[in-house]
Amino acid sequence: MILNEIANEFDQCIKCGLCLATCPVGKTLFLEKYTPRGKVQLAKRYAAGDLEISEHYRDIFAKCLLCGACTVTCPSGVDQKTVFLAMREEIVKKQGLHPNVEAAVTSLLVNHNISDEDNSERGDWRDDIRDLPEHMYEKERADVVYFVGCVASFFPMVQSIPRNMVRILQLASVDFAILAGEEWCCGFPLIGAGAPGEMKALMDHNLEKVKALGAREVAFSCPSCYRTWKEHYPTDLKLSHSTQVIERLIKEGPISLGELRETVTYHDPCDLGRNAGVFDAPREILRSIPGLTFVELASNRNQSICCGGGGNLEMADAALSGRIAQNKIEEVRQTGADIVVTACQQCVRTIKGKVRREKLDLDVVDITDMVVRSISHG
Ligand code: SF4
Ligand code: SF4
Question: Which domains does the chain have, with CATH numbers?
Fold first, then answer.
């Protein structure tokens, strides 16, 4: 993306400041340079040749969740996220990768995952499954490919998500397969790192492996993988988030849900809700669970506030990511819910990680956890 090609975005900014109230970073750091308006003006100065990229500016543009809250608020239609991604690309060209992000990008290019692990271990989350079928979900042909994603594959805190997904798909008799060690990172972290040019090899590989199975649909429990495939992969395959798949399975009847007497709220992941338009499917699932009381967060759907886990911020500035997660927990507390449900492994990691560090009493779960809990009571 070339900054001059999006110069109209700068010119549209009337400096009204409405985006300041919606930005989790700006509201936490209280400095104009960290607000969407401040960053748009810095980008404008850079595009005009009035600003040299330095480590200082690299740090400023790294402090963004790419959550899109500013973009849906701007009355002038400035697409700030596009501006900030273009700036990250410029910064990589001039200064190289952010040092805290470099290791993950290098691992991704070498090992094909963000965790610096041998990619053959990508399917190790299956080890705890008691009734694991002989094929271990790796097949030669399948209608649906379940694309697990790096975070749920490698981080123990959220490996229950793929275990839940395969259980749900199995119960509903869906003909599905996983790629296991042949699944490569979708490429999403490269976009946030300012290095989208490196994505092609990953996309080509994943598409080839899915096509080889003769699949008609790819299902994702990671909103960022889902969005990356939708926006960047050249394919006409049906692409569905887990919430859309599960909503369909509940409506069609193969899944039977049992009663859960709990009060829950729902956190819209930025990449699923605001950035991909999936708001109703998770709510329909929660409303389908008998006995469940569902209360909305004060800021919900398009107005949802990021958990702190977006935009590679956790890698660039873990302390800031944690402060934003704390704000999210306080918003959850105000609902009176005992459980905060989300539909993203990164949101679970970010919020649950903060809950554990602070020793708080709050249950943080992925929506697949709620569905499996409900099925177990059926
Ligand atoms: S809301 Fe839009 S027009 Fe107003 S300051 Fe922010 S970017 Fe500029
Ligand atoms: S994308 Fe989110 S974190 Fe980044 S400037 Fe906009 S509101 Fe702030």
Answer: 3-96 (1.10.1060.10), 100-249 (3.40.50), 257-376 (3.40.50.1860)
Angle at the Cα of 105 from the Cα atoms of 269 and 222, rounded to 5 degrees: 25
- Torsion angle (degrees, nearest 10) of CA 247, 248, 254, 256: 20
Query: Is residue 36 in contact with ligand 1, taking CB distance under 6 Å?
Result: yes
For residue 139, give the nearest of 174, 179, 173, 166 by alpha carbon: 179
pLDDT in tens, 312-366: 999 999 999 999 999 999 999 999 999 999 999 999 999 999 999 999 999 999 9
Q: How confident is the model at residue 1 (pLDDT cuts 50, 70, 90)?
A: low
CB contact at 8 A, 158 and 197: no
Distance 70 CA to ligand 2 centre (A): 6
Which mutation among 20, 78, 87 tests ligand 1's pocket best, with the greatest number of atoms within 8 A of CB?
A: 78
Enter the pTM of the model: 0.96
Look at residues 368, 312, 376 and name the one whose alpha carbon lies nearest to residue 159: 368
How many residues does this entry show for the chain? 378
